[in-house]
Amino acid sequence: MRKLILLIPVLFALSCQQKASDKNPALAIVKDVHSFAKPEKAIVKHLELDLNVDFVTQIISGKASWTIENISGGTEIVFDSRQLQIQKVTLDTDEKETTFTLGDEIKYLGQSLHVKIDPSTTRVTIYYSASKDAAAIQWLNPQQTAGKKYPFLFTQSQAILARTWIPCQDSPGIRFTYTAKISVPKDLLAVMSAENPQAKNAEGKYSFKQPNPIPSYLMALAIGDLEFKSIDGRTGVYAEPVTLSKAVYEFADMGKMVNSAEKIYGPYKWGRYDVIVLPPSFPFGGMENPMLTFLTPTLIAGDRSLVSVIAHELAHSWSGNLVTNSTWNDFWLNEGFTTYFERRIVEDVYGKDEAGMQELLGFGGLQELIKEMGETNPDTKLKGNYEGRDPDEGVTDIAYEKGYSFLRTIEDAVGRQKFDIFLNEYFNAHAFRSVSSEVFLDDLETKLLKGDKVLKDKIDPNLWVYQPGLPSNSPAVGSVKFKALDSLLAKWAGLLTAGVFNNVKLSSNESLYLISHLPENTTIDQMKVLDQIFKFTSSGNAEIQSAWYVLSIKKGYRPANKNIEAFLTTVGRRKFLMPLYKELVKTPEGKKWAKKIYVNARPNYHSVAYNTIDELLK
Ligand code: BES
Ligand code: ZN
Questions:
Q1: Ligand nearest to the CA of 295
Q2: What is the pLDDT of residue 29?
Q3: CATH of residue 247
Q4: Does a structural domain hold residue 472?
Q5: How many other CB atoms sit within 10 Å of the CB of residue 368?
Q6: Ligand approaching nearest to the C-alpha of 572
Q7: pLDDT below 50 — which residues of the chain?
Q8: Mutation probe of ligand 1 site: the residue of 335, 342, 546 with most atoms within 8 A of C-beta
Q9: Beta bridge partners of 113
């Protein structure tokens, strides 16, 4: 009876929500096919994490204490878990032990964890340990770090790996605040996606607090021989001591970037903005963990030429961390918006030329990708469908660059001023919430286009979001700098003499443009000449290295072989590895060589990199 009385207001609220959601899709509960959680029944609100990190056994263990809201007043809450050992689960502050069951193991998703609760339960504490092989965690031995003296650990939770180190409701539509206590070996410093310590302490015990509600994929931890140095009052860099001063030089514009971002889309809501430079096995360029962006050391080119990645991760503080894709099928909302915002920041800090070149390089990559995938391929739609698949498959230039082109199309149609006002309102209206493609389209219609049919037809939002291929109304891209390079390239194609490039100095973007626009029939001898002039093989810029090495493999340009092997063995950034291995497996000799390199290289890669490459080298 009591249950029934409790249920009445809930049912009433749900039925209201149902009706309201017909009119306002923002209120709809979106089903996430990549999570077992049933947030409509019982949902997490706050996490107290208490973990011990043992570098000898390579095991993280402790407890995750969740404050929950039992919305339905039912007797169960469902979490996601994968590779976890659950020891016991208790309820509320008196920690009365309760029962739990684990569902069948499902590929990519792991197991559902069903915990028995009471209608009045407000707290669920899970005692557990993570596996030595947890997919999110990479344990590095001292040899794999810059300093070579201490071990290192970092986590990568996006997209659905948080559940491999924390039992959680692992869906981007579910947010919670957190505090954490982490115990580590005395010589090491721990940092998280939270308010962070700036120096080591003698006990190796660190406390953290994330006061803003975040989705689970933004849970992050790094531990190592780390030091901190400020850039300005609210920005700074964590890195190993041998890397710190180089990193501080490279990323000196971080403070300017935050100021610039605020000028465009309103106040930065997360307090500090710091970055941490990880060992080279980090599988991404950057990861937007709140308050502390995780970065690959390959950004340190020595000339600040790759810092647009920081603009990108910073931009996620609005598009992604503040307003989040509600499921991984809407991933373009995170990355397309962020690529757009990244280029706005780059334009403001480094000028139109720089942003224009990056736009053009991006567009070139997109056209190539769509050609490769086929323009009717459903995976070229912005709204994805990754049910039954690893959402990682959606991490392509469709989300980033087609998403970007769509937003540029809107900007062109309505004018930058109006678009900025709209986006400002969008970030405010949905702050600390998740949105689907449908919510965005609804906002676009009601708040920006306001029934202007001509404008809507000109943009054709549904075509962009729901149809494959690249719409023909995408904005024209062009760069004066690249035009100059085009005429040099034409001359080179005609004469093929080194003289064409005498006294020519190329920026990082120009080098990338040159490498991707060399004539199809470029010979090995011509590559040798170019290499003598521009020193691509021994470049300190990982973007240039990766592009040049792909061409070298394609052409069989052997002078690059030693460097290719060294690059593949040290760098774990998936975006660089994939095109190289893909090119290698195209010939039997290449595949043989790739397999040989892989024996030594694989132990240096994070699971998100080696899982994809294992597949390729099978
Ligand atoms: N959030 C992404 C990285 C990511 C995406 C990790 C999906 C796991 C699943 C990050 O913001 C990102 O986009 N990084 C890019 C850099 C960017 C400048 C394109 C990268 O790592 O290359
Ligand atoms: Zn991103």
A1: 1
A2: 64
A3: 3.30.2010.30
A4: no
A5: 12
A6: 1
A7: 1-28
A8: 335
A9: 79, 102
Verify that 433 and 542 share a domain, yes or no. no
Please identify, by atom number, the ligand 1 atom nearest to the C-alpha of residue 308: 18
User: Are 305 and 338 contained in the same domain?
Assistant: no
HEC string for 515-527: HHCCCCCCCHHHH
Question: What is the pLDDT, as a whole number, of residue 15?
Answer: 39
Please give the structure tokens belonging to residue 112.
């559902």
**Do 330 and 433 fall into the same domain?**
yes
Residue 281's contacts (CB-CB under 8 Å, 6 or more residues apart) are: 138, 140, 144, 571, 572, 604, 605, 606, 609
Instruction: Find the domain containing 586 and state its range.
Output: 480-616
In a domain, 24, yes or no: yes
Chain centroid to CA 504: 36
Structural domain contains residue 513: yes
Of 395, 311, 382, 295, the C-alpha closest to 609 is: 395
The catalytic residue positions are: 313, 400
CB contact set of 309 (below 8 Å; sequence gap of 6+): 285, 286, 295, 299
Q: Are residue 236 and residue 208 in the same domain, yes or no?
A: no
One domain, residues 170 and 55:
yes
Mean pLDDT of the residues in the chain = 95
Residues 612 and 593: their CA atoms lie apart, in Å, by 18
Nearest to 236 by CA among 180, 208, 245: 245
Q: How many whole angstroms separate alpha carbon 570 and alpha carbon 550?
A: 17
Within 496-541, where are the H helices?
508-516, 524-534
Pocket residues: Cβ below 6 A from ligand 1: 158-159, 284-288, 309, 312-313, 316, 335, 395, 400, 575
Task: Name the residue of 157, 193, 312, 402 whose CB sits within 8 Å of the most ligand 1 atoms, as the mutation to test its pocket.
Answer: 312
Q: What percent of the chain has pLDDT over 70?
A: 95
Amino acid at 274: D
User: SS3 sequence, 96-112?
Assistant: EEECEEECCCECCCEEE
- For CA atoms 515, 518, 521, 523, the dihedral sign is negative
